[in-house]
Design brief:
Distance between the termini: 70 Å
Strand content: 5-15%
Strand order of the largest sheet: 1-5-6-7-9-8
Number of strands: 12
């Protein structure tokens, strides 16, 4: 009986997607396999120490998805998050690693953005033998017998570590199971966090319904028809960019009202290089292009009480309301921390007509 109760308790904790009374929140956008960038912003925000151990106390750390792809150290990032989940829990804090579209893509086998280093991270001394065995199975069904050139092309498409990677991210693999246990959306105090955004098509669904929908798809990947599935719908929460790009002020207002929050915090759509607000402050964009692939921009969001801050290259900058004259001053302060010609500097120059 005690073991059964512990298992039920674990499921309840795992499924929790609404939190109140949190004094401090740190939110980090898309990481895309850049371990050094990730630990850099976490240290700047006081979430970890120089040895990458949790120092955030009761802070809630939110990572809004897309830790995978485009960079070589995705596995290191996940392993770190898994360690921090345990350490934060012991300290009274919490780590929320949300599901992004790239997590789901890795699970259902869309590997367009997996770079060589990500496969290499799963290579073992037995990888050559394993790949050879799969090639033998593949070659048996070929007529005429495969040429040397065909085998070389096949090996290029299946580098050492490829099969181990696929096993680890499958529904029965440790990383696949870890992803399936995560939320896609969480509500903390008066903010909702997710990867892409909630479109009008799914605006009638609550947070629990949205999380249940993605778990249902992930549990049935083998039988799922990808066209029209919740996890691949371009208007679905993993993919929708309207809150970050379109003039949908009325939708944002009705959405936040329905969810009972002040703002939606989203990743997925890169900013010019800073934490930015739009649509009357109802949307906060935190995909600053953290990874080397997107420019190595260093910033994360901090929410303390009613105030928003950007930890921008180690400097804590208060983010004023987007409608106020001080908002432009905030962006200028952030740009002053950047190198000449950076994306943020260019963006401000264009904004001011220079």
């Amino acid at each position: 009986m005690p073991l059964l109760l512990l298992a039920l308790l674990a499921q309840l904790v795992q499924a929790q997607d609404t939190f109140t009374g949190v004094a401090r929140i740190v939110a980090v956008g898309d990481v895309h396999g850049d371990y050094e960038a990730f630990i850099s912003v976490l240290r700047d925000a006081g979430a970890i120490d120089d040895k990458s151990r949790w120092t955030g106390g009761k802070t809630h750390l939110v990572q809004t998805g897309d830790v995978l792809d485009r960079g070589p150290d995705s596995r290191k990032v996940i392993d770190l998050i898994q360690n921090l989940e345990k350490q934060a829990s012991k300290a009274g804090g919490r780590v929320h690693s949300l599901i992004g579209n790239h997590e789901v893509m890795n699970m259902y086998g869309d590997l367009r953005y997996v770079v060589a280093g990500e496969f290499a991270a799963f290579k073992t001394p037995d990888s050559q033998r394993l790949r050879d065995a799969f090639w033998e199975q593949e070659a048996k069904g070929m007529s005429p017998a495969p040429s040397k050139e065909l085998k070389e092309r096949w090996e290029e498409a299946h580098p050492l570590g490829w099969y181990e990677h696929r096993m680890q991210f499958g529904s029965d693999g440790p990383y696949g199971k870890w992803i399936m246990a995560k939320n896609m959306v969480v509500k903390i105090n008066d903010s909702v966090f997710l990867h892409g955004g909630i479109s009008p098509k799914f605006a009638g669904m609550g947070i629990e319904q949205l999380n249940d929908a993605i778990r249902a798809d992930l549990k049935n990947l083998a039988k799922l028809k990808m066209d029209g599935a919740f996890i691949t719908d371009p208007d679905g929460p993993l993919w929708y960019r309207g809150l970050a790009q379109d003039n949908v002020a009325d939708h944002a207002a009705s959405l936040t009202a329905a969810l009972g929050v002040k703002r939606m915090v989203v990743g997925h759509t890169p900013t010019p290089g800073a934490i930015m607000q739009r649509l009357g402050g109802r949307v906060v964009m935190i995909d600053v292009g953290l990874s080397a692939y997107y420019g190595s921009n260093r910033a994360c969001l901090i929410i303390e009480g009613d105030k928003l801050f950007a930890m921008h290259r180690g400097q804590k900058l208060e983010i004023p309301p987007v409608e106020s004259p001080e908002y432009l001053s905030y962006l200028k302060r952030a740009a002053a921390l950047e190198k000449p010609g950076s994306g943020l500097v260019r963006f401000l120059a264009q904004t001011e007509g220079r």
